[in-house]
Amino acid sequence: MSIFTGFNASASALTAQRLRMDVVSSNLANSHTTRATVNAQGEYEPYRRKLVHMTPTKSFKSFLQRATDSNDVTQGVRVQRIVTDQTPFKMVYRPEHPDANENGYVEMPNIDPLKEMVDLMSATRSYEANITALNASKGMLMKTLEIGK
Amino acid sequence: MIYGKTFEALGKSLDYAIRRNDQIAANVANVDTPNYKAKDIAFKDILNEKLGSSLPAKRTHEKHLPFHTETHTYRTFKKKNLQYNHNGNNVDIDKEMANLAKNQIYYQGLVDRINGKFTDLQTVIRGGR
Q1: What's the rounded Cα separation, in Å, for the pair B24 and B92?
Q2: A118 touches chain B (CB under 8 A)
């Protein structure tokens, strides 16, 4: 175990939370995108909400340490994948829209700005908590250098 | 022996505090991870006392090598029986942050004490001057 274990765990979380914020930004930016992808029928599909999937880091090293050492290893976090929200699209009545169907309804992305804002705030707070943890680790290591001065 | 037992005790405590800081950092890092269970560190000998799992071995001569060559005095345990969030994650962020602050003060106190011991030794080496 290195002395920077705590640093690495906090740093991995900072990366993950930042990615989460980026995904939220992408969702908000595309909240009115009606032509994001082309489906199998060759028709345009609106943007689908994206979500991050986080897991504790599992490297070969962590498995080896767990097998050889009785002490459980400290784990960071990583984004395993970005998944799409499969909830149905919102139907909005806008007959003048170029992507409206024969009844005048437009399929809009399944994005709820409220959910995105809550997610954004949660990511921000987690980021701040990890900054605090990182500063604590740094403070302790700096204090270590003072031993015997 | 000029160092005595205090240095050893302080050293082990420093070791424990660093390890605990790492674990708290990991818990905070995984605050949004589904199904992650929070972990904490406990002093191993205290835990062993409670569990009664330590096997004492007597040395018949003081120059024999000690049986106990373990370097770690702490042990990690998982907090399994707590549910804090609906996604199976049980990290209590407020508790973790409080523990982080507590651990920092504890560590600084230990460093302060170890420095105090070194100053004492220096005073003795200089003959009180």
Answers
A1: 11
A2: no
